[in-house]
Amino acid sequence: THAQFVTMLGGFVVLGLAFFGSEEVVLSPALLLPDMGEGFLARFVGSINVFAIWACVVLGIAVHHIYPKRSVAGASAYLLVVYLLLTAVGAAITSLFIGMAASAAA
């Protein structure tokens, strides 16, 4: 349940940014790379949530305590890979549908 506190903290940070009028209410590595364009890589990096990465590390610690033979680094890496794969699939589907909509509009 500690990982839920991390995601709740992320929600409060995003809510605070939105409340104070920030134009960017997404906390992703894409904020550091503003000129990435509109392709798959831009969508993928823009979909990564730093609080989700933190939650994966916290869950990796929990997995280590439940299964002591599994290291914290191994469990966290596994969860991060699963998270990044799901994020990549979401970015690919979004890029596909936006590409199809752009070709249909032309």
Question: What structural keywords apply?
Answer:
106 residues; mainly alpha; 4 helices; 73% helix
Please explain how this structure is put together.
- By secondary structure, the chain is mostly helical.
- Helix content is 73%, strand content 0%.
- It is built from four helices and no strands.
- It has helices at 2-19, 40-47, 50-66, 72-105.
- It is globular, with a radius of gyration of 17 Å.
- The N and C termini lie far apart (49 Å).
Brief characterization of the structure:
It contains 4 helices and no strands.
Topology:
Blueprint: H1 2-19, H2 40-47, H3 50-66, H4 72-105
Helix pairs in contact: 1-3, 2-4, 3-4
Tell me about the biggest sheet? none
Radius of gyration equals 17 Å
The assigned structural class equals mainly alpha
Low-confidence stretches: none
- Number of continuous helical runs: 4
Gross morphology is globular
User: What is the chain-wise order of helices and strands?
Assistant: HHHH
Number of DSSP strands? 0
- Beta-strand proportion: under 5%
Integer average pLDDT: 87
Distance between the termini: 49 Å
What is the helix content?
Answer: over 70%
